[in-house]
Amino acid sequence: MTTGSGGARTALRRCVPIPADDFAERHWDRAPLLSRRVDDYTDLLDLDDVDELLSRRGLRTPFVRMAQRGKVIAASRYTGGGGPGAEIGDQVHDERVFELLNGGATLVLQGLHRIWPPLVDLAGGLGRELGVPVQINAYLTPPGNQGFATHYDTHAVFVLQVAGTKRWQVHPPVVTDPVERQPWGGRADEVAAVAEEPPVLDAVLAPGDALYLPRGWLHAASALDDWSLHLTLGLRAPTRLSVGEALLDLAADEPALRVGLPMGTDLGDGSSIAPVLADTVKALHSWLDTLAPEDLVRGWRRTGAVARPAPIRPVAQAAALARLSVADRVQVRPGLLLRASEAPSSVAIVAPDRTVTMPGVCAAAVRELLDGRVHRVGDLPGLDDDDRLVLVRRLLAETLLTLDA
After folding, report:
1. CATH 3.90.930.40 region(s) of the chain?
2. What start-end ranges are recorded for coiled-coil regions in this protein (predicted)?
């Protein structure tokens, strides 16, 4: 986690009012945190914005979901054909959403970190500060209603109350630090039993309040006397299991680990599998001893576990290529993990999904571009102006760089 201090309203500061170091030490992946009057969140999404999304943006599943009294409502009840010129069958129908809302159903707008600009920016900023992928959903619940029964998430969340009030009841985990393959539905009886006990936190969130819940903590929420709108920021933080999965992906490149098992090996017989297990563990140890941290980074990128980089403006970026000048300023696309790999006659930029190789004369300019700062094209070292423009055009075309606005 990248921590910091000061009075600037960073993305994390909009979620927790305490210093980042204190939050990391006392709460991150450990304990809930309820914070009062943290911020006004109506600039991110308000009730008018919800109406805009539902009535004028042509949303489709899975960007919308609805639930009532603990059960998810079939999408066919609020979606249908898109009409002339829209050959789709799952577009949200605003009049059907109205009917369900009017009957007490909860509306969930999903994936807003991809479609609503203020939340695209918030998710990107928070993801870069914390070093984790961030997803954002919005929950709208009519007065006196509850959409979902007590459950837990397999990722941590920040809850930001935008409008109305909502009562949250939080219980301790039935499984510590669950991962995605351990959803609450597989422990429904245990969850229901714990939910009958007194909660460790029973609080009403009002506009501007925030709540942090580590993964695994049971929770249920119900609207009180007004329409309740809150944002849930899901933090898909990596775990040691994630490291193991990245290593497993790399293991496919090791010949000693691709050796087939002896003919006739009975995987259901402990005595038959014992020597195979011993040989496999030995081969794993030998291979793991050869790995460097850079190898894990490579495996990590191959698993796709890293956060999406900041969005680019495709039209503006394409137009910029035609009129690029040495006076323009560029930077690495925010949130994109890049590293330089130098050889005697070449230099490569290694991205999560590809490697871009250039002549070695570009090495000094590449090193400077990857330092995270904004650079004037004409100031890049080791090249003349024509070569600077060729280099920057290529990296803009590869979407590794963006123009500084």
Report:
1. 314-403
2. none
Q: pLDDT by residue (tens digit) across 203-252?
A: 999 999 999 999 999 999 999 999 999 999 999 988 999 888 888 888 88
The length of the chain is: 405
Distance CA 171, CA 217 (A): 6
- Angle between helix 385-397 and 314-323 (nearest 10): 160
Domain with CATH 2.60.120.650 in the chain: 12-235
Class of domain 12-235: mainly beta
> So what CATH class is 314-403?
alpha beta
pTM of the model: 0.87
Cis amide prior to 275 (ω within 30 degrees) = no
Tell me which H or E stretch contains 330: strand 329-332
CA–CA distance, 328 with 88 (Å, rounded to integer): 42
Q: How far apart are CA 145 and CA 298, in angstroms?
A: 47
